[in-house]
Amino acid sequence: MRVVRTVSELRDALRRARREDSTIGFVPTMGALHAGHEALMEQARRECDVVVLSIFVNPTQFNDPTDLERYPRTEEADVAAAERAGVDLVFAPFAQEMYPRGATIEVRLAGPLVDTLEGAHRGSDHFHGVTTVVAKLFNIVQPDVAYFGQKDAQQVLVVTALVRELNFPVRIQAVQTVREPDGLAMSSRNVHVQGRDRERALALKAGLDSAQATYDGGERDADAVIAASVAAMASYEVDPEYLAIVDRVTLEPLRTVEPGALVVVAAPVGPVRLIDNATIH
Ligand code: AMP
């Protein structure tokens, strides 16, 4: 496995794979790798000839400077995890390689996909940062398949729209959320959730489970299902920033809960903000 820092090194390293028409699988990350990222790398390994992992804490998608500053950076361990997962090439650029002085490009989607939920609460600049860096990474790596976690359900939809609208010849593959044994969705930010907050963090999964249980009990009215979920979270002393039941493709709020509806939640827990989601079945 090789670790490269520049676009030209990456292109050189992939030249043969491209000549031989090998399929290239790509896993973009911000590092601080955990079992969720491992699931992405492993699926890429099973499905593609060559696996590229990127590690880049993308400054343009952070709306909160403190969040950016304390975002965990564990490159040595990440490289070891990538090697174990069978990654062929790690692209870990410095910020000036991605955003050289004078760079002005920004790739923006508009509309509810970027304006609602995470876009409404973090600001749509968050997704403009995501689409800009993902567009650049897709041009740099030119993968056949790119793997994204369903944990960031809105991000999967945003990246899918990006690929469709800019005609990238890339297939977006969503990968199921990996959880801790007690149900907490794995996240790089979980390292900052300690002590009593670690128990409180279970509120998000409890809220999602409650939505399914309320639905299973026969309730179909979205507001009633949401109210029960918010109450379930309150028993963990967590107040969601949002808890919504939305169409899984358009993210429009649903008035009636139906199978396939997406339940999305974000909540502050201690020093961090956590997100999670589940599909009603
Ligand atoms: P990040 O490093 O947080 O930007 O995440 C990189 C990729 O890993 C994104 O596509 C995330 O959705 C995905 N990911 C993060 N956490 C999980 C998880 N618990 N399960 C599955 N995928 C995840």
CA-based shape = globular
- Small molecules in complex: adenosine monophosphate
Report the biggest beta sheet as strand number plus sense, adding barrel if it closes: 6 strands, parallel
> What portion of residues belong to β-strands?
15-25%
What's the end-to-end separation, in Å? 41 Å
Can you name the CATH architecture of the largest domain? Answer: 3-Layer(aba) Sandwich
Q: What class would the helix/strand composition place it in?
A: alpha/beta
How many beta strands in the DSSP annotation? 9
Describe the model.
The protein has 281 residues and is an alpha/beta fold. The protein folds into 2 domains: 2-175, HUPs (Rossmann fold, 3-Layer(aba) Sandwich), CATH 3.40.50.620; 188-276, Pantoate-beta-alanine ligase, C-terminal domain (Pantoate--beta-alanine Ligase, Chain: A,domain 2). Helix content is 42%, strand content 17%. It has helices at 7-19, 35-47, 65-70, 75-84, 95-98, 112-115, 118-122, 125-141, 153-165, 196-200, 203-216, 222-234, and strands at 2-4, 24-29, 50-55, 89-91, 145-149, 171-175, 242-246, 262-269, 272-279. The strands form 2 sheets. A 6-stranded parallel β-sheet has the order 1-4-3-2-5-6, sandwiched between helices. Strands 7-8-9 form a 3-stranded antiparallel β-sheet. It is globular and about 55 Å long. The chain starts with a strand and ends with a strand. Bound molecules: adenosine monophosphate. The site of adenosine monophosphate (AMP) has 17 residues, from helix 2 and strand 5.
